[in-house]
Amino acid sequence: MQSDLSKYDLLIVSDLHLSEGRNPAVKKFSPNEDFFFDEEFARFLGYHSCGIPGRSPDKRWHLIINGDFLDFLQVVSTDIGQEFREYLGVQNSEEACALLNYDRDRAGYGFGCGPRETIFKLWKIMDGHWQFFEALAEFITQGHIVTIGRGNHDVELFYVEVQAALAPKLRRIYKEKLTREHDLELTGKLARFDEACRSDAIRFMEWFHYEKELLWIEHGNQYDKVNSFRYGLSPLLPNIPGWNPKRKDEIDLPWGSLFVRYLFNKVEKDEPFADNIKPQTQFIWWFLTHHLGLALRFLFGDGRYMLKKMQRSWRALPVEAYSERKKDHDAHLGGLAAAFGIPLQRLVAIDNRRAPSVLKEDLPSVSWKMVRFLMRNGLVLPLVVLLLLFAAALAVFVIWCLFGLCFPGPIHGLVEGLARFPAGRILDGLAVSFLKWLLFLVVIGCAGFFLRWLFGAKRREANGLLQNAKAIAGLLNVQYVIMGHTHDTDLQSLDSPGREYFNTGTWTKVFSEEERLIREESELVFLQALRKADGLRIKLLKWNDGAGEPRLVKLFD
Questions:
Q1: Residue 413's domain spans which residues?
Q2: Which of 431, 455, 479 marks a domain boundary?
Q3: Rounded Cα gap, residues 432 and 439, in angstroms
Q4: Closest CA to 547 of 531, 529, 524
Q5: Which of 216, 298, 225 is nearest to 263 (CA)?
Q6: In a shared domain, residues 36 and 180
Q7: Cα–Cα 20 to 30 A to 235, which of 186, 333, 422, 471?
């Protein structure tokens, strides 16, 4: 299956996160958009297509987009155009909406995660990023091939219908470009594009790309408990008793996806780059300290809806509910083992390294068990109200003490006793200001402590990926393991000499709250692998658009 790919040099990117993009009608971007590099990516592909120093111009590229290419979670538009109505075979938007799954009373969250709904999102993304896809079509027409992997933000690429809908839309965009530019080679270019598509120039990666004893490429979300799927090769909802049969084929979203869809998409109307704060688990702290009012408004409004969705994910299910998903997953696993020539037991061992989802069985910590208990018993909002009332009472008590108001009994005596100390008289002029700030820090500190206990100690997903990369290299005896997902560009030596782990970072902006800076060396990153007689020549690079060529990524030991 993979022998025909050995002649191609490799370009590997991940985590592009294309969403609705720029609306040509109003000439503005969606507030949920994270990818603003369509022209830069076009020049990146053009540079490599024209030939690079030290490489034969006759050689072809294999571009691997290693997951989270498309951000289906952040497409919330329900504006159905003529093209999609024709696809559904209906006359108007009302008829189209009747065929699609979504919460009618919460249309602002967008359509659901079924195949037809995802095709709508796919075409919406492609319309908003037409320059990106024009360049991708040109790249394919020139004889290069593209493999698209799926991550946790575009797991809907699992659907065969969605995969089949990409190439025809890509052709339409390419034809519009050639027509607009009055290209004299329009007919010939479209013919070459069609022939390339018939020759599998566009491929889809179920889980990984593997070359024997050389490299292993996968997205990496399965090793992250916040974003893992119980059955990654069959990531659908289980057979839930009483569930709407029309929605049985929707995606079984993990915690991180619910967080993006029901929190980030709302917050980004006020803070467009909120979901770019990494790591994701630290967003809660940032949200409370920077937008307390907005956080409270969300909690008592849309937050209840998000908690309802999470509670559904924690529903107690009979053992056989996932039996169909497991059977399908195991069948795909056997097929991949046979196609790539990997011993099945070794592939199963890698699959078993999946981190247990925090929304499913085998909750990994007391913190998450407490969250589950609170949510299943409807105690989250009462607990928050109780904490707010306690903080308000503490604030009133301290302020009354500062202004010398009288209290009955022992409290009054305690206040007067403290005031008699010399230190109290010396600090009398500063007491009000000092204690007000002290009170603020105490309240924020208590909230932070509670959240850290609730959501677990701060961690970096990158460490987990590295450990799993070491295990994969050992099981399969590969020289290179390449992942994405964390948006942290990385290069590490594995246990054996000559073995290396790469993380290809992202093409979006990354804001690190803990470092309070924009991590520029994590954006526009890609991996370039040239095939030489003695193996692969790999470089971790960053596209420098101003220079019109790549530069080595600057990493520190």
A1: 380-455
A2: 455
A3: 10
A4: 524
A5: 298
A6: yes
A7: 471
CB 14, CB 506: distance < 8 Å = yes
Q: Which amino acid is at 92?
A: N
DSSP 115-142: HHHHHHHHHHHHHHTHHHHHHHHHHHHT
* Omega prior to 279 cis, within 30 of 0: yes
Cα of 385 vs its chain's centroid, Å: 31
Q: Token pair for residue 194? A: 């069609």
Residue 55 φ/ψ, nearest 5 degrees: -135, 140
Least Cα distance to 153 among 529, 485, 488 occurs for: 485
State the Cα–Cα distance between residues 151 and 208, nearest whole angstrom: 11
Count of domains observed in the chain: 2
Q: Which alpha helices (H) appear in 260-318, and where do they start and end?
A: 265-267, 283-290, 292-299, 302-313
| pLDDT confidence bin for 326, thresholds 50/70/90 | very high
Q: Does the pLDDT at position 102 exceed 70?
A: yes
152, two tokens: 């946790």
> Does 540 share its domain with 393?
no
Residues 449 and 510 in one domain: no
Q: What is the pLDDT of residues 196-243, one digit of tens each?
A: 999 999 999 999 999 999 999 999 999 998 899 999 999 998 877 666
**CA-CA-CA-CA torsion for 263, 265, 266, 268, nearest 10 degrees?**
110
Tokens 């100690």 sit on residue = 457
Tokens of residue 221, six digits: 């979300």
> pLDDT tens digits for 345-390?
999 999 999 987 765 555 555 455 555 555 555 555 555 666 666 6
